[in-house]
Amino acid sequence: MEMKFNSFAKEHASSPPKPPILLTPVVASDPSTNPEILWHIAKHIPELRKWVIANPSADAHLLEYISQQGGPDVRHSFEVLFASYDSDI
C-alpha cells in the first residue's frame, strides 16, 4: 500500500529544518528582532542584556526585568541610556 503525502509534506520532506538563530549583540540590538527573542535573551543570556537595553524596540517591561536581573555592563548601559534622554531635552 502506497502512503500518500500531502503537498506540504512532499515539498518539505527532503529539506532540512531552518537553523536556529545565532544570538549575537547585533540580534539583541536590532529593532526588528522579535520581542519573544528579546525576552529569551533577557532571561537566558546575561552577557547580551546590555545590547537589549540599546534596542529602541525594548519596552519598559523588558527593561525593568533586565534592571532587576542585572548582568555584565547592565548598569553602565542604563546610565548611557538615561544620559541620552537627558541630552535630548
TrEMBL record:
Start and end residues of each Leucine rich repeat variant domain: 24-77
Stretch list, region Disordered: 1-21
Domain of life the protein comes from: Bacteria
Name of a matching Pfam family: LRV_2
Bias (Basic and acidic residues) ranges: 1-13
The name this protein goes by in its record: Leucine rich repeat variant domain-containing protein
Species annotation: Gardnerella vaginalis
